[in-house]
Amino acid sequence: MVKTWRGAPAADGYRMPGEFDAHAGTWMLWPARTDTWRLGAKPAQEAFRRVALAIASFEPVTIGVNGSGFEHVRRIMPGAVRVVELSSNDAWMRDIGPTFVRNDTTGEVRGIDWGFNAWGGLNGGLYFPWDQDQLVKQKVLEIEGKDRYDARDFVMEGGAIAVDGEGTLLATEQCLLHPNRNPRLSRTEIESRLARSLGVRRIVWIKRGLADDETDGHIDELAAFAAPGIVLLAWTDDPDHPQYEIVREAEAALEAQPDASGRRLRLERIPLPDPIELTASDCRTIDRAAQSFGRKPGTRIAASYVNFYYCNGGLIVPAFGDRRDREALARFSALFPDRKVVQVYTREIAFGGGNVHCITQQVPDGGRG
Known about the structure:
Strand order of the largest sheet: 1-8-7-6-2
Strand content: 25-35%
Number of strands: 20
Number of helices: 10
CATH superfamily: L-arginine/glycine Amidinotransferase, Chain A
CATH architecture: 5-stranded Propeller
Number of domains: 1
Radius of gyration: 19 Å
CATH class: Alpha Beta
Shape: globular
Structural class: alpha/beta
Oligomer: single chain
Helix content: 10-25%
């Protein structure tokens, strides 16, 4: 029987493991929102399908689908991919789904059910309503049979944090301290809440995320842990690139702050693709809706290879049809010789405001340690 807890996970002996640790499986959602995704969401669905198949070659995958799409998705997915009926307002499982924590003594895994307000609520949020999104975490935990920590009083998105599994968390001030998330909490109170929830002892703050990021600067477009003490940082040497100053600002912040073990972080730079802009043709095929984020010709999209996904023995990396796709693939392959690096064309996912990491959520393996 799944139980609901209202205490602090860390006080119960739980912590969030690094994403590079072993997984029991991966959760995704199926895109269908036609005011986010162009051409009735069909190109995005094909990109999601390719990502799911890539992950499924390494570990179990579950896809949640709104009821009307279940039969279609079940038919186009192999039997190894579990398809379940699961209502949602959109398909960003990283932010809508639960954050899993593990007890290293018992090996038990539980999930945190954070509050969610569509990246800003009525003060800059990306769509309304988000009522079905708010229920996804609890539904996933019920299906997985994992106990649930009720943390809905604290607005948090999985893409806003990165942890090393040893007490260090990366985040941007732009996102976690934004007044449209938890306006009544101070920086110290937010730090305390993260420590009590995730078992972290040190938060390494970066001032802001990538320019043109609809989510108010999520860390998962900018930086990720490769291992404890090693951070992958999105990078460009082109002074005309819109991210040029931002990545240097992030570099300085990461070099100035030690991790929870007192180590100086080692930075590995990952090239950024060229900026992506929506064309008039793209925008003509996106439905107009008063309660969703407007997309018009010239809207620039935050795109980054750092928005990748770890899976058991593998790494799923975005491709954009960009001149730096090959360079990024070679860079990841060199950095992770013990993993098979698979590059998937995900430009359509970028059009919606995220990428591979944003549409996935790992369930940690219950093994101890």
